[in-house]
Write a structure and sequence with these properties.
The chain is α/β, with parallel strands linked by helices. It has 2 domains: 215 residues, Alpha/Beta hydrolase fold, catalytic domain (Rossmann fold, 3-Layer(aba) Sandwich), CATH 3.40.50.1820; 121 residues, no CATH class. It has an 8-stranded mixed β-sheet, sandwiched between helices. Helix 2 packs across helix 3 and helix 7 packs across helix 11. It is globular and about 60 Å long. The protein starts with 14 loop residues before the first strand and ends in a 5-residue tail after the last helix.
Length: 380
């Protein structure tokens, strides 16, 4: 299935429309600040398992500050159509998503933009800024630090190849309590059915998944990692480093919020969660999960390797929640960004938020985002 045309609910200051012929797709966008031509463009790229709707609390404030804020449903998600979850998985590699972002900017009549990406959208935004700094002139990564393309082997022409050691997957599986990485699970053939048709139902699964990765779950106490060994990674919460025998639905079920907690959730009320659940019932999850197939496997790696040694040179900010383990999931990534990105503006970790920072603490998030955008000369 390739998407749904069902509209988002109407919110003051937001409109939705479609951009046609974007890499063969019809892309649904939300936008704010569209009334006045010539405003600076801020492109907002959502993460998994979300849609453009995840930016609903941020966009009106960006418009009030004088920006044109645009959030697309990315390929594989929501109301964007023309993608094929069962077709060539390479259509969902990071390079393809970055090309989508470039085409959206061009279709809207802009030569350049600030790009903001959350979760996997952070990887897309970072890659877009790495490859096209002439267009994406400032970058905000949210919850997923990108410290550059992997290094290529150097000065190894006359050296015998060393036999590879065990992979991370093998090392995790060999632990006394066998484990697996959630990224690898998302890339697996069984992931879609596990999450789309769990015993507790899709709505209840999503409620539990959003809960355990938020500041509401008391088990989130992130801290920097040092080695990245299987033993150290196994200390992360179970939703990142999973028990090998379990799927994600069973992993998060024991920590689901009580019904009265869910009903009182101030940052993701049931009406908004229902919107996500209904959308994924229509589209399925495989389109969204195909990015993980590409990111954790060989698909698209040659394109990324082409940029090995390049660093992001545009003004860059990293924003996340203080209770978000995603900040430290890749050991040392934040410090490498600080030391290698020449225009790294800083790291802003927001109180009272976990992984869904722009939804959990939209006022604090937007304040940090606007401080950065204005500091880069993007003030209208």
């Amino acid at each position: 299935m390739s998407g749904s045309t069902k509209d988002y609910p109407t919110l003051p200051g937001l409109r939705q429309r479609r951009l046609h012929d974007i890499e063969g797709m019809s892309v649904r966008i939300l936008e704010a600040g569209f009334e006045t031509p010539g405003r600076p463009l801020v492109l907002l790229l959502h993460g998994f398992p979300e849609m453009a709707w995840s930016w609903r609390k941020v966009m009106p404030a960006l418009a009030q500050a004088g920006f044109h804020a645009v959030a697309p449903d990315q390929r594989g998600y929501g109301g964007t159509t023309g993608w094929d979850a069962e077709g060539d998985p390479a259509a969902f590699r990071t390079h393809a998503y970055a090309t989508d972002a470039l085409r959206i900017v061009s279709a809207l009549g802009y030569r350049f933009a600030a790009v903001v990406g959350h979760d996997f959208g952070s990887m897309v935004a970072a890659y877009a800024a790495l490859v096209r700094p002439d267009v994406f002139r400032s970058l905000v990564m949210v919850s997923f630090p990108f410290d550059g393309p992997p290094a290529l082997p150097f000065d190894d022409a006359d050296h015998a190849a060393n036999p590879p050691g065990p992979s991370l997957a093998e090392a995790l599986a060999a632990l006394p309590r066998p484990r697996k990485d959630s990224m690898a699970f998302f890339a697996s053939p069984e992931a879609e059915a596990d999450m789309l048709y769990p015993p507790q139902g899709l709505h209840a699964f999503l409620r539990a998944y959003f809960h355990v990765k938020s500041a509401d779950w008391p088990g989130n106490h992130p801290h920097p990692l040092t080695s990245g060994s299987a033993e150290e990674l196994a200390t992360l919460p179970h939703y990142y480093i999973m028990d090998r025998a379990l799927g994600m639905a069973a992993t998060v079920l024991p920590d689901a919020p009580r019904p009265e907690q869910a009903a009182a959730n101030p940052w993701l009320p049931d009406a908004d969660l229902d919107l996500y659940a209904r959308a994924f019932r229509r589209t399925g999850l495989q389109g969204a999960l195909n990015w993980f197939r590409c990111h954790t496997g060989p698909i698209g790696q040659a394109e990324i390797a082409l940029f090995s040694g390049r660093t992001i040179e545009v003004p860059t900010l990293f924003l996340s929640g203080k209770a978000d383990w995603g900040t430290y999931r890749k050991p040392g990534a934040l410090e490498r960004m600080r030391s290698t990105y020449p225009r790294m503006a800083g790291v802003n970790l927001i109180d009272g938020a976990g992984h869904w920072v722009q939804q959990e603490q939209p006022e604090r998030f937007t304040a940090g985002l606007l401080d950065f955008l204005r500091g880069q000369g993007s003030t209208p």
